[in-house]
Amino acid sequence: MLRKNTTPGKLIIVEGIDGSGKSTQIDLLYKWLQSQGHSVYFSEWNSSALVKSTTKRAKKSKLFTPTTFSLLQCTDFADRWENRIFPMLKAGVIVLADRYAFTAFGRDVARGVDKEWVRNLYSFALQPDIALYFRVPLEIAVERITSARATLKYYEAGMDLNLSESRIESFQLFQERILNEYDNMVNEFNLTVIDGTLTVQAQQRLVREIVKQELVGWKGLPAPEGSPFKFVGPEISAGKGGA
Amino acid sequence: MPDPEFFGAGFPYREIGDLPGKLIVLEGSDGVGRSTQTQLLRMWLEDEGFAVSDTGLRRSEMTQKGIEEARKGHTLGRITMSLFYAADFADRLENQIIPALQAGFIVLSDRYLYSIMARDIVRGADPDWARKVYGFALKPDMVLYLKANVTDLVSRLIHGRGINYWESGMDIHAANNLYDSFIEYQSKLIALFDQYAEEYDFVTVDAGRPVMKVFADLQDHIRDLLEDQQPIIEEDF
Question: What CATH number did the domain enclosing A54 receive?
């Protein structure tokens, strides 16, 4: 259970396994909301400049254990939460997040950490107003990822779990565990399931419909006329997503 | 040998097995003399023939640089800092402390999760949250609490290395000057340590005395703990 969002802002997040198409959908949503004149802020998983060098070093030297991986990703999230997401919500902005605490609940538990322990770590975060879960069958996600990339990275493929010598097979087994965790979270966290096998446009139509409903009668922070909302503040690097 | 005990779920993905070593923690305020005592204890124990490993906060290979960088900036949030320290702690526990205990070492830890939790809570963290974060942590065999009052600390620091920004809680603006801030911040920490001393069965040692007196007390307590592991007797020589 996460606490209810009582700020004037709206929090909309997307979740799903790698290759589910969620990033494409949130990017389209971001542009659409801006074009509607809303103040929108976008935050990506694993993108805090503060934690970046540590994560990089740990990945390179394969220093992570499931516990330290989980704690460091939560540190990254906390930095974005304290310096960006929460202040934005308080200001009445629509915050879009590509991956949220549920990614940790899925991946970290798939790596073997205690379920309740990782839920406590993120208990400072708020329940999103809309949590969209893009669900695709495992085979489709794996097909999308392996055809788009030459190689899978060590942690991305879950190689630290010693599930298989083969990266592709390890990736499949790892994603399967995560998929199970997501399915269990649908009721626990009230995730809205979107069929990720539909066409991009059909999915986007559904997404906009859900968001429109949520925004009926809502007035957030007005965007300055003529210019799309852009946050100005201390530098925060736009990292690349993924584990 | 009893199975290792954890504060919460521990490391469920890993078989820890027997830990023939001993984990001994020195806790207490900034400037109370922990690192001096740790050095003395190490020399003494090695002299007695024990293999000793020591560790302290922010010494993990993984997070050390990152935390130091973060402390220099001005954007380090309270929750972010708590979690960064927890990552440092977990890394040292899994990669240094537990392997050393498995190999039968005596591990001397200059501070443990109690110091980190206390600092987090003084900075406004939810105590229940902070406690659960450390559910992975191993319970030490003994916690030696070097207890001193604030006046002692001030005297030691002013005649020693000086009063610094973090040890005065200046980041939370406890007061508008370094001295008052130090007093207020350290008093709050001492109150929490006293509370933990009851709750977690610390062995309290009066640190407001000369170094060698304190050291002798610590030796007595550690001898009791190591009763079953007799030191090498050199009478034959």
Answer: 3.40.50.300
